Amino acid sequence: MSETLTVPETVILEVFRYRPEVESEPTFDSFEVPFHPEWMILDALNYIKDDLDGSLSYRWACRMGVCGSCGMLANGQPVLTCATYLESLLPGPIRIEPLEGFPVIRDLVGDIGDFMNKLSDVKAWLIRDEEKPVEDGEYLQTPSQLDDYKQYSMCINCMLCYSACPVYRLEPEFIGPAAIALAQRYNLDSRDEGAEERMDVLSQHDGIWGCTLVGECTEVCPKGVDPAGAIQRYKVSATMDYFKSLLMPRSSS
Amino acid sequence: MKRSREPIIWVLFGGGGMASALFLPVLILVLFIALPLGWVQSAPIDDLQWLVRHPLTRLGLIVFVMLCLFHWAHRFRYTLYDGLQLSHLNEVIAVLTYGMAMVGTVVGAYLIWGVG
Ligand code: SF4
Predict the structure, then answer these.
(1) Is the pTM of this model over 0.80?
(2) Prediction ipTM score
């Protein structure tokens, strides 16, 4: 009890470093930073960058859990560093590493090209067979139609779920949690007409069937998106679609 | 684009998960714990045999056994595939696991049909 009440003056951060021109293999640098109970991990990293070692590279932008760029591993757990108190990881040392599953470019910065490509593979945008002319006004939607997909639209593309997904780490071809949840976000949108196109990509082995329902994605998601649930729902629709096309081969592609 | 045939397996897997979660505990509790310990009054053995002899009961039991086995097979397949990282043996593993489920189903059907 008394131990949890003592507030340390400082805390040690062991930060993953990889500067291709300096070291051929990644290493860890230790930094001692002041401890403040209101500091997030990101505040400590910014302190390092401003006061201790300006060469440290990492991504961040909004500091309020909406830009999705500051995801890293803290003591092995994928977290948004702007939304994780230093205090929650005391007494330290706190180990900070780049997200798993993405090739490291420099220090804490990973190459996220693969995820970006997957978002376009699943066509994570509104698809209309025919756009109606602007003069015809908006596409109206009722509150309950909004509720159908709202949860999935909360995704901030932070990729924590990819880092947590053991299947993605073993098989990078797997489309993965967020891209499937985002495909579902559009499939369930009353204004969208692209479900059929997306199904072609998603119903393959590397789509939803790659998922073995480990569920870690949903555990780590900071936005309550529940990608595991989205994938399971999609499995149900893909299965119904499959049996429908078996029974009525001509009506479906 | 070619779609995966996974839905067939997944339906068996999902059905097996559901069936085993709902019925297996009940069967174990009633047949192997409650009846032997005398917690509940056993129906006369004749009645039980009549029940098992009914074709619909037999069919139900066989489907139940099949679903449970396919549930096991699918899980075990992915335990080997991802857990032991044997993805290069994908085909062999699939044939072995689902094959065992099929053999198990046939054996189960034979035994169930032989009861009474
Ligand atoms: S689903 Fe959640 S964890 Fe995955 S990218 Fe979106 S917000 Fe991040």
Answers:
(1) yes
(2) 0.71
Ligand 1 atom closest to residue A159's alpha carbon, by position in its atom list: 5
Which backbone phi and psi does A104 adopt, to 5 degrees? Answer: -75, 130
Task: Classify domain B6-114 by CATH architecture.
Answer: Up-down Bundle (1.20)
Pairing of strands A77-80, A109-110: unpaired
Q: Which residue in chain B has the smallest CA separation from A202?
A: B3
Cβ A90 vs Cβ A10: under 8 Å: no
- What structural domains and CATH numbers belong to chain A? 10-110 (3.10.20.30), 113-247 (1.10.1060.10)
Tens of pLDDT, residue by residue over B85-95, are 777 787 888 89
The H or E element that residue B50 is part of is: helix B45-53
Are A69 and A61 in contact by the 8 Å Cβ rule? The answer is: yes
Rounded distance from Cα A83 to ligand 1 centre (Å):
14
Q: How many residues are there in chain A?
A: 253
